[in-house]
Amino acid sequence: MGTSVQVKPLCGVYNENPLAYLVSVDGFNFLVDCGWNDHFDASLLEPLSRVAPTVDAVLLSHSDTLHLGALPYAMKKLGLSAPVFATEPVYRLGLLTMYDHYLSRKQVSEFDLFTLDDIDSAFQNITRLTYSQNYHISGKGEGIVIAPHVAGHLLGGTVWKITKDGEDVIYAVDFNHRKERHLNGTVLESFVRPAVLITDAYNALNNQPSRRQRDQEFLDAIMKTLRADGNVLLPVDTAGRVLELILILEQFWEQHKLAYPIFFLTYVSSSTIDYVKSFLEWMSDSIAKSFEHTRDNAFLLRHVKLLINKSDLESVPDGPKVVLASMGSLEAGFSHDIFVEWVSDTKNLILFSERGQFGTLARMLQADPPPKAVKVTMSKRVPLVGEELAAYEEEQNRIKKEEALKASLIKEEESKASLRTELPVNDQMVLDANNTHSSSNAIGQRSEAFRDVLIDGFLPPSTSVAPMFPFYDCSSEWDDFGEVINPDDYVTKDVNIDQMLMPVDGELAGKLDEGSVSLILDTTPSKVVSTELTVQVKCSLIYMDFEGRSDGRSIKSILAHVAPLKLVLVHGSAEATEHLKQHCLQHVCPHVYAPQIEETIDVTSDLCAYKVQLSEKLMSNVLFKKLGEYEIAWVDAEVGKTQNGMLSLLPLSSPAPPHKTVLVGDIKMADFKQFLASKGVQVEFAGGALRCGEYVTLRKVGDASQKGGSAAIQQIILEGPLTEEYYKIREYLYSQFYAP
Amino acid sequence: MASTGQSLTSLKKREATTANNRDGDQLIITPLGAGNEVGRSCVYMSYKGKTVLFDCGIHPAYSGMAALPYFDEIDPSTIDVLLITHFHLDHAASLPYFLEKTTFKGRVFMTHATKAIYKLLLSDYVKVSKVSVEDMLFTEQDINNSMERIEVIDFHQTLEVNGIRFWCYTAGHVLGAAMFMVDIAGVRVLYTGDYSREEDRHLRAAELPQFSPDICIIESTYGVQLHQPRHIREKRFTDAIHSTVSQGGRVLIPAFALGRAQELLLILEEYWSNHRELENVPIYYASPLAKRCMAVYQTYINSMNERIRSQYANSNPFEFKHISPLKSIENFNDVGPSVVMASPGGLQSGLSRQLFDRWCSDKRNACVIPGYVVEGTPAKTIINEPKEVTLTNGLTAPLNMQVHYISFSAHADYAQTSTFLKELMPPNIILVHGEANEMGRLKQKLVSLFADRNTKIITPKNCQSVEMYFTSEKMAKTIGKLAEKVPEVGETVSGLLVKKGFTYQIMAPDDLRVFSQLSTANVTQRITIPYSGAFAVIKHRLKQIYESVESSTDEESGVPTLRVHGQVTVKQESENHISLHWTADPISDMVSDSIVALVLNANREMSKVVVESEPVVSEEEDARKAEKIVHALLVSLFGDVKFGENGKLVISVDGNIAHLDKQSGDVESENEGLKERVRMAFQRIRSAVRPIPLSA
C-alpha cells in the first residue's frame, strides 16, 4: 500500500569507510552520497560500479571527500550519469576540495584516476538547491519531492528529505545539533515520525566535553607551544571544518592582540575564503546578524594569511607560527610535507582536529600511545631530461594529432548543429548569453583575456557566434599549435590546459591562484621521484574533537525525539553500529536495520493508507478542537464515490454508532500544576503525585518517559474523597483533553 | 474551479455583513496602496481565516501619514504573515511604522540581501527626509527594533507559518528582489512585486514559476509600453553623456541610490575603460548610502547572474576604477565637465536637487533621467520640458539644460508581461502598481489577448476588495489500522480526523500517537464516600436502577465489590467508607454520579424501610414525553415549528419549509441546506432523548 523503499549500502557500513548508499523509492534509485577516502582506493567502489548505471539521481550531503570524493571517478569510469543535487556551498566547496586533492596528489604521484577536467564535468551536472527548497522530480520519479535541510557539520551540509505521497524518507548523516561559530545546528529535530530515517553511528560511542572547555584547551595547547618557540601544525580539510578553526583562531588573536602568524595553506585557500565570504546566507544567525548591523564579513580575515604555495611559507622568517594545511589525513598535500619537516622537533605540536580516516598516517599518529617512528614517502616531481624527455614528446605529438583530428570533426558537426538551432535567436540572446551559455562565454572572455584582447561582452558583432561557441577557438588553436613540438612554447599549452579547466567553470579557474594555476598549467614533462624515509616522532601530538558532529548522547536523544517508524543505521565502526542498534531497538522504535554492504533491505512501511475526499456536507458538521498545532475531531461517515471514482466521505444517514471514548492530549504534571494554581487551587508535588487541594491526588503511572514509538498510553489516576473539590479538579483535568 | 465575483465594497462594510457568515471559501484581495497608482505598495489578502500582507511601502510623493498605505482599513493584529518583495521605499519603507506603531504581531519575511540593504536604506531615509518631528513616521530606533523581527527567506526555500505555505522566486528588478508564491489550502497566489524578465549587467531575469497560480497579482508600471532593446538604451545613455561632457557640459543623473544606480555605474565604468579619451572626466556617485551598500553587493553575488559571478572570480566588479564617491556638495569641486549620479531620483530634495538648481540654466549641461519617475515629483515635471522651473529657494529659472529620459528601470514592459502571463496562464489576474491610465490600457490589451480563455482581469482601486470563491476539495488520508481495508461504498468509517495546517488524516485513536505528536490518555478515577450502612442495601438499590450489577469479592483485600454497568466498580473499603472505581468517559462518569447520589441518599434514609414498587411507566407516556421534548428542542433551534398533518412537524425558516416525519426521521424540503440541518438536528435530538444503549 505505502511507498516502497529499499536501502542498499554500497560502501561505509560497519566501518568508517566513505559513504555511498542506494535508496530506491518506488523504483527510483537515489544514490545518496558518493564518497571516497584519501587513499582513493578503487576497490571500495566496486559495489558502486555494479549499480552506477541504474542510478537516477545523486544526492550529496557534505562537501568533503568522504561524501562526494568518488563523484568524478564514478562519472568518468563507472557509467554514472544521473543528475546530481547539492546545495550551493556543497557544490562550490566540494569542487575546491576535489581540486585540492587532485593537485596534492598530482604533485607527488602519477595520479590518473581522474583529471581536473573530470572533476569539472562531474560538477557541471549538479543542480544547486537552497535549504527547504522543495524540488519536484519529473519524469520517472514523478511525485517524488526532495528537499535539503540544514545539517550543521559543514557549510551547506544537508539532511535530505525525500517525500512521496506524504511519506518521508530522511537521510541524515554527520549532523550537528550544536550551534557553532559559523553554522547553525541541524533542523533534524523538527521532523517528526518520518517513515524511514537513515543515519550514521559514527559518533555513537563518543562523548564531547563542553564547547567552551574544548575551545579553551585547544587555544591553551597552541599558545603553550608558540610561547615555547615551537610551531603548530593543524592538518585540516580543504574547505570544511577548517572554517570553524579559522574563526576560533581569528577571534582569539583579535581579542589578545597576538602577533604570531597564522597561515592557511592549501592549493585553493584564497578561492576558498573568497567563496566562503559570499555564503553568509548559509551560515549561522549570529554571522548574518553581524553583517546586517555592521556589514562586517566574518571571513574578512585579519590574522590568518592565505597561502597557496609552500615556498611562500618557507620565505616567512623563522619563529613560532601556526599552520593550517590540507589534507587532514597527512597522506598527501602540504600537511604531509610540513609534518615530515616538523615531526622530529620536540618543540613543535601537531594538533589533530578530527579523527583520521582509517589506515592513514593521521590515524596511526592518533593511536595511544603514538608510534615512536613512522615511515613516510617523500615524493617530488622533477622535470624530465634526456631520453625520457624525447620519448615523452613523441608520445605527446601523436596524441595531439589524434585529438586535433577528432576536434575538427566535432567542430564541423557542432557548427552544423549550432547553425540550425541558434540562427533564429536575436540579439537579446547574445547579450544574455551568460544565462544559457554561461560557461562558454566565460571561456571566451577568459581565454581571450589571456592574449590581452578585450571583449566587450555586450555588443559582439551580430554575425559572430564565437563567444557562445568557444570550442571552435580552442579546436582551431589545436590546429594551429598542435604541430608545435617545442616544449618551451608554453603559451599554447597554457591555453589548452586552461580551456580544459574552463568548460565547466570559468570563474573558478580564474579564482585559482596564480601559484596553483602555474602548477596546473606547468606541463613541463616531469616525473615523480619518491624516497622512503623513517622519521622519529618527537613533537607533541594532540587530538581534539572539532569534527562538529553530534555526540553519542545527543544522537540518541535526537533519534528518540524524531522517532522514525523505521531506522536504518550506516557508517560507523562495528561496535558503534551495534551499540546504537541495541539502544534504538529498546528506546526508539522496533524496526532498526543495520544492513551489510550490498545487502538490500526493504523498509517499505507496512503502513496502510488510502485517500478519501471529505465532502462539504460532512465537513460542515465537523467541529474541530485545537490542540497545539493540530486540530482534531471525531468523524463518523459513510463511504461514497465521487464522479471521478474517488472515495468520498458523506455524513451518515443512520445514527452514529457508539465508540469508545478517547482522551486526546499530553498532560505534563508540572504544567497542570501551574494551571491549577492559576485557578486558585492549592497544589504541590508529594511523593510523585500531585496533591490538589486538601485531599485529592493526581498520579501518572506508566509515565511516557520513553517518547519513542512504543510509548504507552498515559495512565492518570485521580483519587479523592467525595468533595466538591474532587469534581472541580476533575473538570479542570478534563479541560486539558479533547474527548471526542 | 474558481468563481469570481467582484464586489467593490469597502472592507469594513464587508466585515460587518459577513461577520456571522463563516464562509471560509471566500478569498479577498484588497490593495491598501498601489491600486491604480504607483507607490506605497501594500496588498492585503485573506483566505480561510489566514491573512497575508504583501509589501509595506510609502508613497514617495507624499510625506508623513499621507504617504502610508490605508492601514486603517484592516486590523493589523489579524495578519499572519507579511512578505516584503524588495528594499525600495515604495515597497518596504512603512515596515518600521507597521511593526512598531500598529497592533501587528505576525511574522515578517524578506530575502537576505533585502534585509541587509533595508536597514541602510531606511536609516538614510530617516536622516534625509526633512519633515517635522510630528510628521516622522518612525525613528532610527524603530528601524533597529524592526530588524529584530524580520526573518529571512532564501529563494525557493519553502516555509510554512500557521498553515500558510510560501516561497519566493528571483524577480530581477534589484538585488534580492523576490516574487512570492503563497499557497493556502491548495489555492496559490503569486505576487510579483516589481519584476523584470530581462537579464542585465548584474541581475538575473525573473524566473517563471513552475506552478501556475490561481491568482496572479502583477505590477503594471509600464502598461502597454515597450522597452527599447537594452543595448540601444545603453548606447543612447552613453552617447548622451559622452556628447555632453565632450562639449564641456556637466551631466546630472538623478537616480535612486540603490538598485538601478549600481547597474548604471557598471555601464559607466565599462564605457570609461573602453574610452581612454574620457579618462579625465570624473564620475561621482554622490551617495554615502551606495558606498555603504557596496559590501552587501560584494557579498550576495550568489543572487546575481553568472556574468557578474564570473567577473567576481577575477576582481570585484563593484570596485570601480573611474568612479569615485562624493560626500556632499561642499566637497564637490565643480570645475569643468563631470558626471554626477545623485539621489533622490525624483529631484525632490537632497543633492540631486541642489545640483539641478545649480546646473539647470546652462544649456551645455544635461540631465539624464534613468528610471521611472513617480507622478508629482519635479523629475516628472521636467520630462515635459517646461520653459521654466521653480528652484528650491522659490525663484524661477529657465530650464535650458537638456533633459534625456532613458529608462533603465527594471520593470517588465508589455512584451514581458504578456509572455509571462501567457506562459503562466493564471485564471485570475489582478493589476496593481501602475497609473490608472496605463493600467486601463494594459487591461484592455490583456482582455483581448486572453479573450478565448475565461481569464478575469481586475484592476481594483485602493481599498476596493476583490472577492473570489474557491471551492477547494478537501482530501484526507486514512492511515494505520483504519486503512487496513479499503472500504466499499456504503460502509461506515469512524475515526479521529486530525488536521494539521491544511492536511487531513483520519486514523484510529490507537494510532494517534504513532502518526502525530499527540497522545491519548486514560484517566482512572477513585472516589471514596462515607457510608456506614450495609453493603447489601446498596446492592439492592443498584439492582433496581441498573440492569447489570455483578457482585464479587476483591482479590486483594477480600472485600465485597459490585460491578455496575460493567464499568464502575463499587467496593466496600471499610465499615464507614465505600469507594467507586472507574475509567473516565462520559457514560461511566454519569453512572458513577448516579451511584454517588444513591449512596448519599441511602445514607440519609438509612432507617427507612424500602418499599418496593416496580416503577411502571407506560410506553405511551414515555413516547409523549419524548415528543414534547423533541418539539421543545426543535423550537429552540428553528423557531417556527408547527404540528402538521399525519403527525409531521412543519418547520419554516426564512420562508423555506421542511416537513419532518417524527417516526422515521425523514425530512422533506425544497431547500437542501435546511433539509440537511433539520435531519441532523433531529438525529441528535433523538439520540439524546433515547435511553443509553448498554453495549457501549
Number of helices of chain A: 24
Using a beta-carbon cutoff below 8 angstroms, give the protein chain pair with the largest interface and the number of residues from each chain. A-B, 113 and 106 residues
CATH class of the largest domain in chain A: Alpha Beta
Percent of residues in β-strands of chain B: 25-35%
What are the low-pLDDT stretches of chain A, counting only 5+ consecutive residues below 50? Answer: 421-466, 472-477, 489-511, 703-711
Number of helices of chain B: 18
Low-confidence stretches of chain B: 1-22
The helix fraction of chain B, in percent, is 25-40%
Q: Average pLDDT of chain B, to the nearest integer?
A: 84
Taken together, the total number of domains of chain A comes to 4
Overall body shape of chain A: globular
CA-based gyration radius of chain A: 31 Å
What are the defining features of this structure?
heterodimer, A: 740 residues, alpha/beta, Metallo-beta-lactamase, Chain A, Rossmann fold, seven-stranded mixed sheet, 24 helices, 22% strand, globular, B: 696 residues, eight-stranded mixed sheet, 18 helices, 35 strands, 30% helix, elongated
Structure, described:
Chain B: Residues 39-256 form the Metallo-beta-lactamase domain. Chain B: Residues 261-382 form the Beta-Casp domain. Chain B: Keywords: Hydrolase, mRNA processing, Nuclease, Nucleus. Chain B: Residues 489-692 form the Pre-mRNA 3'-end-processing endonuclease polyadenylation factor C-term domain. Chain B: It comes from Coffea arabica. The complex is a heterodimer of chains A (740) and B (696). Chain A has 740 residues and is of the alpha/beta class. Chain A folds into four domains: 5-207 and 545-602, 4-Layer Sandwich (Metallo-beta-lactamase, Chain A), CATH 3.60.15.10; 211-384 and 527-543, 3-Layer(aba) Sandwich (Rossmann fold); 613-651, no CATH class; 669-737, no CATH class. Helix content of chain A is 36%, strand content 22%. Chain A contains 24 helices and 31 strands. In chain A, strands 6-5-4-3-2-1-22 form a seven-stranded mixed sheet. A seven-stranded mixed sheet of chain A has the order 7-8-9-10-11-20-21, covered by helices on one side. In chain A, strands 14-13-15-12-16-19 form a six-stranded parallel sheet. In chain A, helix 3 packs across helix 5. In chain A, 43% of the residues are buried. Residues 421-466, 472-477, 489-511 and 703-711 of chain A have low confidence and may be disordered. Chain B has 696 residues and is α/β, with parallel strands linked by helices. Chain B is elongated and about 120 Å long. Chain B starts with a strand and ends in a 7-residue tail after the last helix. Mean pLDDT of chain B is 84; it is low at 1-22. The chains are: A alpha/beta (740), B alpha/beta (696). Strand 31 (714-721) of chain A pairs parallel with strand 27 (520-530) of chain B, so a sheet runs across the interface.
